[in-house]
Amino acid sequence: MEEGQLLELKIPEKSPQSLVSISGTINWVSENKPSHVYIDAGSPQGLRRFTSLARNSKGELEDNFVIERLEPGIYTLRFSGSNIEDTTVRNVRAPGEGLVVDISTKRQTKLRGKVVSKETGEPVTGFEVGFGRDWIRFNHPEGEFELASMGTECRSVYVRADGFTMKRSKEICPDANEPVVIELGKGGAIRGIVVDENRKPIQDAKISYRYKRSRNEKPDEKYITVTGANGVFVIEGVPKDTTSQWFVITHPNYAPELKLIEVEDDYTTDVEIVLKEGGTIEGYVYDSQGRPIGDTTLYFLDESQYSYWKENRARLGSATTDPNGYYQITRMPEILCFGFRHEPDNQLGVVRTAVLPANGKTTRLDVGGRWYATGRLLEDGKPVTNTKVMVTGNTAGYETAFTAYAITDSDGVFTFWGIPSGLRFMYWSIPGIRGWGQWVEIGRFDFESGVDLNLGDFDVGLSEVTVEIVAENPTEQLDQLEVFIQRYNWKQFWGTKAGQILPRQDVNEPYTFSNLTPGNYEIIATRQNYPTIRKVFEIEQGQKIHRIDLWIPAGSASLSGKIIPHDPNIPQSLLLRSVDQTITMDIRPAADGSYKIANLPFGDYIIGKTAVALSRQSTLKEVSLGAGEHKNLDIEIGDIQKGNDGYLVVLVVTEDGLPLAGTDVWLQRVDETVFPHFEGDKSKSLKGEPGEWILNARYPGYKSVRQKVIMKSKKEYNTQEILKPVVITMSK
Questions:
Q1: 3-state DSSP call for residue 370?
Q2: What is the pLDDT, as a whole number, of residue 54?
Q3: Are 376 and 364 in contact (CB under 8 A)?
Q4: Mean pLDDT of 116-133
Q5: Which CA distances in Å does 111 have to 158, 161, 178?
Q6: Which of 297, 308, 430, 529 is buried most deeply by CB count within 10 Å?
Q7: Pairing state of beta strands 500-501 and 497-498?
Q8: Are strands 726-730 and 646-654 parallel, antiparallel or unpaired?
């Protein structure tokens, strides 16, 4: 820099003069103040500011608060802290002052329980109760305990005692008339043998819990027991109330085995675990330019999430490439094995892939390759530069067996190297947005291994949607309304959020969302204790501006009753939906199964299950409500498995063991066809009546498959047997 020349320093923040604040006062609804209160101010654009209530000279919490350094706009304030009811205030304008927020402290309550021996019914006089992060010791001649709690929520606790296995209690509700009885069992045991494929005992095989490992311990350092010279192992202290446990069995000379062991009559003795030689996976790793990479590590897991490696879960092993990019890893099990580059989301090229090894054989798995697929991103005819593009084997936001990334150059051109055969999804990333909402679908394309592909130009012009809220009741307060857009999902009410909401200066302004592309969407408007309002709409190609009125109907009807589950040990959350699916409301029962929902518009409704793959079609009850009408409706959830508890998982691979994404799969028998309720490149799941079916599989360029399969009943098979996929190999 020349002498006398000014240095220009650009700070990537708003100037202090442009920032504003929100101030207000806390109205303490309860007499006792908490020890601390945190305040989180967040805008729809992702701007966040945190503060807490200050203390006066006496150490008491102040009633006034100020949130500073805010950009002008609309914010949501969340108040949380010790022993207070979490409080959310939406649509608060900055700058603003004079806001009054009611804060209630939770009422101090008591949780009561009684610990007895399951075998004798006699009290257990000395025991510990796990509550929060602490274990509290109790000694009581009748086995009783009492815990101080805050609020009215029901809680579960853990109880342990010498000579008994640890037990999780049923939910204990505050100030109940009678203590909840917790029965402790002596614990069961599992005795089994580990053998090789010739039924010869294997010594020094390690048996570990699959899901009970510490992140700080290596997989081979934490185990329950090892087999003796006769291959026998014994696991003691297995909870009697736990009918099954997942274990991992490992030995350096064999492929690892994942086993679900069921405990019957407290002692299981007929467990035989066969360890196989395993298969070998080998191949080359290529970079984002189709060149082999040396000294690069691949991580193999039996699950499709790279984060599990750090969590010390699902590890199968790792391998590092030589200077020519070649790697080899042995002792791989005959299950779908997922290979990852290090920190895959920060790499370019193929970063996640999968293969099904064959026992005793070598399977080729290249990560990337020398053939390419190229295309160009344009917006209004101009190149979209320096933008990330993704190819994946499933819809963005869902688990997948394949991911690859590329970056557009100065001409908007992107190139992928080594995409294997299959129908795959391609997305581009909207700058400035994080999470799955950043990915916008370009299209779905059939790739073929070894074949170059020119995808052409893609105009990825973005649209803007303005949503005007129109309330039937003009006096209705809508200041606590939360409005967002999600991608429409015809099977479920859940969808990936889309678009970026623009700043609003006033709560009466419409909601405007940018960065949306052509496709089907759903506007969602939610608020506490009110039904959710929905509207499906479509953005057509070339449509830059879209204006929508969202009608908020008045609601004065209500519904109450009891949910009677088939299995009382399985919590049931249900969903009320209008026949036209424009109104939904969660039904969350209390500990005794009772529920009440209000503020419902008049009309015809359906009640179904929430946590199912086809929640838009689930039907348990139908009900009609008039304006201002209240109905009592008990909902009995029968044995939903009865007659329809068959389940089948299908994995489709090529002759090379690579998952063939996009294969059409369905089941058929006389006058009945079943299609997958869930499908991705990892597997496809089908449900129906147990028994024999004809499985069909079809993909362009490959021979179609028809074969007999058995759909297994959940009552006759365990979870591992149910989830073991039927493997379909497609050949050309």
A1: coil
A2: 87
A3: no
A4: 88
A5: 13, 19, 10
A6: 430
A7: unpaired
A8: parallel
- For residue 13, the tally of other CB atoms under 10 A from its CB is 9
Specify which residues 42 forms β-bridges with.
48, 76
> Would you give the end-to-end CA distance of the chain in angstroms?
67
Average pLDDT taken over every residue of the chain = 88
pLDDT digits (tens, 9 = 90+) for 395-411: 766 778 999 999 999 99
Q: Does domain 16-103 have CATH number 3.30.1490.20?
A: no
Q: Name the residue among 162, 176, 56, 63 with its Cα closest to residue 114.
A: 176
Closest CA to 627 of 553, 561, 530: 553
The stretch 647-673 carries a mean pLDDT of 94
- For residue 288, give the nearest of 410, 373, 205 by alpha carbon: 373
Amino acid at 514: S
Place of tokens 């499709």: 304
Going by C-alpha positions, the residue among 75, 83, 69, 71 that lies closest to residue 99 is 75
DSSP reduced 3-state for 438: helix
Residues, the chain: 732
Q: Class of 463-552 per CATH?
A: mainly beta
Q: What mean pLDDT comes out for the span 692-713? A: 94
User: Could you tell me which of 260, 197, 257, 194 has the C-alpha nearest to residue 721?
Assistant: 260
CATH architecture of the domain 108-184 equals Sandwich (2.60)
Q: Answer yes or no: same fold for 108-184 and 279-364.
A: yes
Neighbouring-strand partners of residue 194: 273
pLDDT of 641 above 50: no
Extents of the domains making up the chain: 16-103, 108-184, 188-274, 279-364, 372-459, 463-552, 557-636, 646-730
- Amino acid making up residue 722: I
With 50 as the cut, is the pLDDT of residue 599 above it? yes
Query: Residue 12 has what DSSP assignment?
Result: S
The pLDDT confidence band at residue 567, using thresholds 50, 70 and 90, is: low
Lowest average pLDDT, out of 158-167, 515-524, 650-659, goes to: 158-167
d(CA 514, CA 501): 6
pLDDT at 639 over 50: no
Name the one residue in this structure whose structure tokens are 């202290």: 237
CA angle 446, 447, 448 (to 5 degrees): 125
pTM: 0.75
What is the percent of the chain where pLDDT is above 70?
A: 91
* Cβ atoms 319, 329 nearer than 8 A: yes
- Select 646-730's CATH number: 2.60.40.1120, 2.40.50.100, 3.40.50.1970, 3.40.50.740: 2.60.40.1120
Helix (H) or strand (E) holding 721: helix 719-723
8 Å CB contact between 322 and 301 = no
Provide the pLDDT for residue 34.
83
In degrees, rounded to 5, the angle at the alpha carbon of residue 286 between the alpha carbons of residues 283 and 292 is 85
